[in-house]
Amino acid sequence: MPTVTTPETDRVSDQRIDRVVPLTTPALLHHELPLDAPLAAAVLTGRRAVGRVLDREDDRLLVVVGPCSVHDPAAALEYAERLRVAADRLADDLLIVMRVYFEKPRSTVGWKGLINDPGLDGSGDVNTGLRRARALLLDVLRLGLPVGCEFLDPITPQYIADTVGWGAIGARTVESQVHRQLASGLSMPIGMKNRPDGSIGTAVDAIRAAGVPHVFPGIDFSGTPAIMHTRGNTDGHLVLRGGGGRPNYDAESVAGALDLLRAAGLPERLVIDASHANSGKDHRNQPLVAADVAAQMAAGQRGITGVMLESFLLPGRQDLDPTRELVYGRSVTDACLGWDDTAEVLDHLATAVRARRATLPTRA
């Protein structure tokens, strides 16, 4: 049978590209939505505070808490207003950072997040998504909350990273050389999650790799292709999220992870993700995970420097269904804790910090 050709298959390049849309430059987006001097100072203060907690110069607990992935900026901002009140009330014991994730990593298919699909309909209006994401980050900063993001696409940090106080490389990308290089040049502390199969050694390797200088292609502030020469990120740390059908937040797993860090010559600092495999992907188990972690802290475990929680205004999750209106304040990705349960968990963690503080030797 003869081969059927079309104008597309006759091309040398772009045979599978449907269309190309110009992308706004980072410089233009920053001009439209600037990070003014007071907000820039707040970002720097937040990053330094996170670093001090990770290094145990500050005996508080870092808590990164918020929606699995933001789909409704208005609901996310209402959540931020509630979180700001809790952060103020618990400031002596917890350093609360709002989880403001915009890129949803996918094992197969599904909604990819607010930046890639702000219309929640597959239209892929990335320029609008970047604007909405940056606008929300600025709004959260104006409330006085540091923000945390996972970095998935290696280009998007130029658009939003100046607003971020804490960052993460996710379980699906922690083995990627591209993401390790990216992390080596980012300006905030970066948590490396263990792989979905539960491998911790891969994340430890990622912390080591990101901690040294790299040279790689990227884009600069003007959107021009450039060669990036990084200095290395010495604020890398390990995030335990479970995997391979097993949790890894228990005391034995924590001790084993700290041993791996010690053997690699890395700082012994852990953040425990109470969701994902640690909760068996059931949001109702997150308080149980947090309670176990709190008990370890109260017993004097200092290697646990942070906790992550997936939380939104309402508990659970919902599907994206074009035939039905979405429920306001409920996740469209992973199921989240509702606000009331979140507030209880935060109080419990703060109590554990006070108990751990009591186990430390007093300074003369």
TrEMBL record:
<keyword id="KW-0028">Amino-acid biosynthesis</keyword>
<comment type="function">
    <text>Stereospecific condensation of phosphoenolpyruvate (PEP) and D-erythrose-4-phosphate (E4P) giving rise to 3-deoxy-D-arabino-heptulosonate-7-phosphate (DAHP).</text>
</comment>
<dbReference type="GO" id="GO:0009073">
    <property type="term" value="P:aromatic amino acid family biosynthetic process"/>
</dbReference>
<dbReference type="GO" id="GO:0005737">
    <property type="term" value="C:cytoplasm"/>
</dbReference>
<keyword id="KW-0808">Transferase</keyword>
<keyword id="KW-0057">Aromatic amino acid biosynthesis</keyword>
<dbReference type="InterPro" id="IPR006219">
    <property type="entry name" value="DAHP_synth_1"/>
</dbReference>
<feature type="domain" description="DAHP synthetase I/KDSA">
    <location>
        <begin position="53"/>
        <end position="345"/>
    </location>
</feature>
<dbReference type="GO" id="GO:0003849">
    <property type="term" value="F:3-deoxy-7-phosphoheptulonate synthase activity"/>
</dbReference>
<dbReference type="InterPro" id="IPR013785">
    <property type="entry name" value="Aldolase_TIM"/>
</dbReference>
<dbReference type="GO" id="GO:0009423">
    <property type="term" value="P:chorismate biosynthetic process"/>
</dbReference>
<comment type="similarity">
    <text>Belongs to the class-I DAHP synthase family.</text>
</comment>
<protein>
    <recommendedName>
        <fullName>Phospho-2-dehydro-3-deoxyheptonate aldolase</fullName>
        <ecNumber>2.5.1.54</ecNumber>
    </recommendedName>
</protein>
<dbReference type="GO" id="GO:0008652">
    <property type="term" value="P:amino acid biosynthetic process"/>
</dbReference>
<dbReference type="Pfam" id="PF00793">
    <property type="entry name" value="DAHP_synth_1"/>
</dbReference>
<comment type="pathway">
    <text>Metabolic intermediate biosynthesis; chorismate biosynthesis; chorismate from D-erythrose 4-phosphate and phosphoenolpyruvate: step 1/7.</text>
</comment>
<dbReference type="InterPro" id="IPR006218">
    <property type="entry name" value="DAHP1/KDSA"/>
</dbReference>
